[in-house]
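User: Okay, second chain of the day. Same drill as before: sequence in, structure tokens out.
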Amino acid sequence: MVSSSLDIDLDKIRYNAAQVKQMCQQQGIAVLGVTKGFSAIPEIVSAMLAGGVDGLADARMENIVELRNVGFDQPITLLRIPRLSNVKNVVRYATISVNSEITVIKALAEEAKKLHTQHQVVLMIDVGDLREGVMEEHVLETVNQISHLQGVKLLGLGTNMGCFGGVLPSIDNLGRLVELGNSIQNQLGIQLEIISGGGTSTLSLVEDQKVPAGVNQLRIGEGILLGTDSTNQRRIPWLCDDAFLLRAEVIELKDKPSVPIGDIGRDAFGKVPQFTDVGVRKRAILALGKQDVIIEGIIPVDENLKILGASSDHLIIDVTDSSTNIQVGDSVSFRLTYSGILSASQSRYISKKFRGG
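Assistant: Same drill. Structure tokens below.
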């Protein structure tokens, strides 16, 4: 029996998807619902689709295969550049894949020919974040090579923002992506269907109607799921931010000193813990630990509670100033950040409970 639960409001996820779709559609931008943040749980995928997203996208082939196996036949884009050793599955299960290595694209083309199909690719361009992508000066050469391959079709260009270097999308860097698309058309005679301008962090430009003309796709996960934009450090005011709540049970409640007694060594994870003496405090231990969720990714709903730390199986919180009279057996609720939902959704120790839909 699992000791904690992730409560998921499908109606709020559907609402967020519909709001994002409506705002983007008004500016000619299609929305891919990114499913990797919640391990592509089918009920949540269905809520995204009910909200009107134009397609799905995931970074894990395992998730894409599972979605196909349970009957999802919508276009699915593989968001992590493919492994050379896995091109057969990429062609078989993903409609589109993002790519940056010509060697892999050639392998995809060969595999697609064997399967008597055509695989669509989006060439990723590095405009500054320094994760995946061809450098701008090599784009035309790479596109020219792709154009001579049978078995693949260059669907468009894409870029990634905020995931490694923290670079924010801007009129300048997205404008350069559009200009590269224009150069491909003018110099190579290749018409691109997609200019994919990033993810949730680009929504701030959408709100201000500052997305450069020509960008016609965004890949949205965090915004739809959590109503937040961690790269820009903001809550998105027109979206719900409470579609997910993590609940864990109190298994101990005692008054204890705020500083351990004895010589301090390293904890179970090799770190030397630091403590501040604030006297005796009422502390609760919850049946939740680092094996269940990334502790830095959860935030108590009751702002008067303070997370003190965690071991593999126990979460220790200070409940002295709690707005309610917490007792052993009660549940404590937490909101989640993107890292929190990423880990909680795939934990087999956390049950998933759905509302709405």
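The chain is about 25% helix and 25% strand.

User: Thanks, on to the next one.
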